[in-house]
């Protein structure tokens, strides 16, 4: 049935509103949309109309509406989603629904991400910049190749950092293309850092693997286990 949304929003809260959120159709009431007065939805649906309507008369929100149903369900019943927690959290931030944001950030998955992993990564110098550099190098080396290979150096402690010059000189690979992480003052180990690197690159749609990079050494030279080979697979 065609939507029949009125063009005047100065009406009773129980009035039914038809929404088109990025092509996803939803039906709700003004009271639901206005439930949290400081939210973006309450702002939009208070006073004169602030949205255009589509060809069927539905109020149109130009945003992906895949998870808007979870937003509406919380506004109706305060029920939290059981899946797509991170995606719904992103929408809650966009619509500035503070109670939902707070409750989602207390769920085990987001709590672990925000309080555990992200707090750890904030203690790793230049972590985000290094991820961008890795992707940029890999893409530059992808021409006519199935794989891109990058050497990363992980220095867990200040003591490891003291051996950096000797370790980097032991490499036969191009030293200027080595990307270095650390040191950091937090409990997670080198393996945890490598898991984060893999996760954050794969979350951007790439296929990667990480293996220890063996460094050839002479009889009297020290062995350094700081190096790992990051492999991007393109096809």
UniProtKB/TrEMBL annotation:
An individual GO BP term: protein homooligomerization
Pfam families to which the protein is assigned, alphabetical: BTB_2 (PF02214), KCTD_C (PF25611)
Gene behind this protein: KCTD14
Domain of life: Eukaryota
Name of this chain's protein: BTB domain-containing protein
The BTB domain, residue ranges: 15-112
Organism of derivation: Astatotilapia calliptera
Transmembrane segments: none
């Amino acid at each position: 049935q065609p939507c029949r949304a009125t063009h005047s929003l100065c009406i009773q809260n129980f009035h039914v509103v038809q929404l088109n959120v990025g092509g996803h159709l939803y039906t709700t009431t003004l009271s639901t949309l206005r439930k949290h007065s400081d939210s973006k939805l309450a702002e939009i649906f208070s006073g004169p109309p602030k949205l255009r309507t589509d060809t069927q008369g539905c109020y149109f929100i130009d945003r992906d509406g895949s998870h808007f149903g979870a937003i509406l369900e919380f506004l109706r019943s305060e029920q939290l989603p059981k899946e797509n927690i991170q995606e719904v959290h992103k929408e809650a931030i966009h619509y500035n629904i503070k109670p939902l944001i707070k409750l989602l950030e207390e769920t085990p998955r987001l709590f672990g991400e925000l309080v555990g992993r992200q707090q750890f990564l904030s203690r790793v110098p230049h972590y985000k910049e290094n991820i961008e550099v890795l992707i940029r190098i890999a893409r530059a080396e992808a021409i006519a190749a199935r794989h891109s290979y990058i050497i990363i150096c992980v220095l867990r402690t200040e003591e490891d950092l003291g051996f950096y010059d000797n370790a980097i000189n032991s490499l036969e690979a191009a030293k200027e293309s080595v990307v270095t992480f650390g040191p950091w003052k937090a409990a997670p180990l080198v393996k945890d850092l490598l898991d984060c690197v893999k996760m954050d690159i794969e979350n951007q749609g790439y296929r990667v693997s990480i293996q220890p990079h063996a460094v050839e050494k002479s009889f009297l030279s020290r062995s350094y286990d700081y190096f790992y080979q990051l492999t991007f697979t393109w096809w």
